[in-house]
Amino acid sequence: MSWLTNISQILMVVVILLIPYFIWTFIRRSVRNYMELKEEELDLQRENNELLRRLNGLPAREHPDTEEDNEQSG
């Protein structure tokens, strides 16, 4: 019967050691997904700004990411 308790103790240690790995993986994936969503949001915002410029009859910018844009947007 002692082998059964040894196996259960080993399994418990393995599970306890795996918990931080799963937590770290979850956090890493969440951060990666958040950053991808933010990047996509910025791309859509730039595209929207460009479409609004065209709609208002203003010439399209060759380099939309300038300091002037950053100062105007906030």
TrEMBL record:
InterPro entries: YebO. The keyword Chaperone does not apply. Its main location: membrane. Residues 27-55 form a coiled coil. One of its GO terms (cellular component) is plasma membrane. The keyword Transmembrane helix applies. It comes from the Bacteria. Keywords: Cell membrane, Coiled coil, Membrane, Transmembrane, Transmembrane helix. Residues 65-74 have a biased composition (Acidic residues). The chain crosses the membrane at residues 6-27. It is a single-pass membrane protein. Residues 55-74 are annotated as: Disordered. Pfam families: YebO. This is YebO-like protein. It comes from Anseongella ginsenosidimutans.
